[in-house]
Structure formats: C-alpha cells, structure tokens
Amino acid sequence: MAPIFMHSLVILLMCLLSSVQAQGGLKTDFYSSSCPKAEATVRSTVETHFKSDPTIAPGLLRLHFHDCFVQGCDGSVLITGSSAERNALPNLGLRGFEVIDDAKKQLETLCPGVVSCADILALAARDAVDLSNGPSWSVPTGRLDGKISSSSEASNLPSPADAISVQRQKFAAKGLDDQDLVTLVGAHTIGQTDCLFFRYRLYNFTTTGNADPTINQAFASTLQTLCPSNGDGSKRVALDNGSPADFDVNFFKNVRDGKGVLESDQRLWGDNVTREIVRKYAGTFSGLLGLRFDREFQKSMIKMSSIGVKTGKEGEIRKICSKFN
C-alpha cells in the first residue's frame, strides 16, 4: 500500500503545483469559486474588440507591460486624472482602456467587487497574444488594484532610444534578467510605433546627416518612404517587417538582419549577451528554437505579471477601473 500511497501523494502535489503560482502570492484559477466566469468574460470581451480591430492586441499587451513597470501590476495605469500615470509622456500612446472597462462592467454585473482591474489587464494581455496566433498560458491571478497613480513615476519606463545598458538596468530593477528583456521585447512582433519615435535614425543620426549605420540600407530607404523627414510624426509603422499581425519569431529575424525599427530593438544585436538570445530565437517558429521563444515568452510574462503585486491594505478591488474607490 505504501507505494500506492506515495504515488497518490506525488500526483496530489503535482496538481497543487500546477494550480498555484508562487510568484507574488498569486495562483491560477483564483476566481474558480468566487467568479467562475471571470476568465471567459475577459476572453469574450477581448475577442469582440479584436474582431473589429486586430491592432488592439498589441495595445493590450503594451498596456499591461506599462502597468507592471510602474508601481507594479496593480492597474494604476488605468486611473484617469491630470497627474495620473496614464497622462505621463511615455503613456500617451497607450490603447485598450475601453476593452478593460468593458470587461469590468460585465464582471461587476456577474460578480460585484470580486475581480480586480489588474487581473483583467493580465488576462486580456494573455488573450490578445493567443488571438494573434501566439501562445496561451495559465495566468496566475489574485492581484489587488493599487491606490496610487502618479505620472512622475512613469519616467523610468523603457524608452525607444535606450542603450542596452539602460534597458538592462531598467529590467533588472524589476527582477527581470537578459533573457526576460529580449523575450518581452519580442512582443514587438505584433506592435506598431509612430514615425516620431524612430525618424531621427533615418536622416541625421548623431548629427552626421546620415541614417543610423546599423539599419539595413534598403530597409532604411523603405522607412524613409513611409516616414518622410517633414511628414506626419503620428503615422503608424509596424515593428515587425513581414508578419505584423502574427505573434512569431520574424521580429528577431528583422533584428538579426538590421531591420529593427526602434533603436532600442536594433541594439539587441549589438550586445554579446542579447545577440545570442536573438540568434536562438530567430529560428523557424515551427522548429525547436522557434518553439523556445513561444515557451519562454509564457515564462517571462508570468514573471513580469508578478511584479509589485499589492496585498492587504495596499490595494482594493475597484468598482470602476479608472477611479479609486
């Protein structure tokens, strides 16, 4: 009987480990009893918005990223107000607020005061990736919504012009290593950016009168056509040249080939450590190395989504995501 008992115990422990995520005190299926339809409601809401506008997917992913990098993953980026985090310069182009508000409104009808806005953000980011032909994963939930939202604290968000040393420092400050850095930047496989954020690389880089020499020459000409020197700085350009709607490894191939749109992205190829990670990820998506990015992205997202989780009196469950209770 002892071997059978031990076997059963092992199975029980494995089940417990699969349903509980140690990071941040979060766990999967957190709402299984208190609000069984929570995750399905978020999913259906994201699907509805995605069907009418697929570009909302990278918007939701970026929204979650920006939330977690300031005050932790606590929904502080959702708060409105002149001095709120949402109005900081790095956050002015954020999108997807209406998706989170839509899901929250439905959940407040189903389960009043139960599901946090921070959790809705984390779930929506996962669903956005999945709908873009990317991986899906079990999102550990149980976050509380923060009670602070200050635009001044958003100054440490990663910037499109950051050198690798600066990117590395900003990610390390959040407990994220080089592997996480490259993996999470890989989210740009479905992103877009404004000409304003990279045009300086095309015409007078470091006041030389030439383009950034790390840009593939033919690609630089393509970008100059898309973003004339005196053109509309708000014009949107895909960060992934080739498959901007699919969550795949093409972004890493672009970086390898000198076709990174943002300076911070292309700099991944100029550092010995990050270059090796990019090189590994640039394999075909259906092959071993491609699948590794698929898998590693899930891990890095769970890790990032556990930054600065609020507990006890530090947080609350907001009734409306854009307002403190």
Description:
The longest helix is centred in the first third of the chain and has 18 residues, at 2-19. The strands form 2 sheets. A two-stranded antiparallel sheet has the order 1-4. A two-stranded antiparallel sheet has the order 2-3. It is globular, with a radius of gyration of 21 Å. 44% of the residues lie in helices and 3% in strands. Helix 10 packs across helix 12. It is mainly alpha-helical and 325 residues long. The protein contains 13 helices and 4 strands. Residues 1-22 have low confidence and may be disordered. The chain folds into 2 domains: 37-157, Peroxidase, domain 1 (Orthogonal Bundle); 164-304, Peroxidase, domain 2 (Orthogonal Bundle), CATH 1.10.420.
As residue ranges, the low-confidence spans are: 1-22
**Into which percent range does the helicity of residues fall?**
40-55%
Q: Would you list the SSEs in sequence order as H and E?
A: HHHHHEHHEHHEHHHHE
How would you describe the shape? Answer: globular
Number of helices: 13
The CATH superfamily of the largest domain is Peroxidase, domain 2
Query: Main sheet: which strands, in order across?
Result: 1-4
Count of beta strands? 4
The second-level CATH architecture of the largest domain is: Orthogonal Bundle
How far the N terminus sits from the C terminus, by CA atoms, comes to 55 Å
Could you tell me the mean pLDDT?
A: 91
The number of domains is: 2
What fold name goes in the CATH topology slot of the largest domain?
A: Peroxidase, domain 2
Sheet having the most strands: 2 strands, antiparallel
Integer-rounded radius of gyration: 21 Å
Give the CATH level 1 class of the largest domain.
Answer: Mainly Alpha
Q: Please state roughly what percent of the residues sit in beta strands, choosing from under 5%, 5-15%, 15-25%, 25-35%, 35-45% or over 45%.
A: under 5%
Binding site for Ca(2+) 1: 67, 70, 72, 74, 76, 85
Site (Transition state stabilizer): 62
EC number: 1.11.1.7
GO biological process, one term: response to oxidative stress
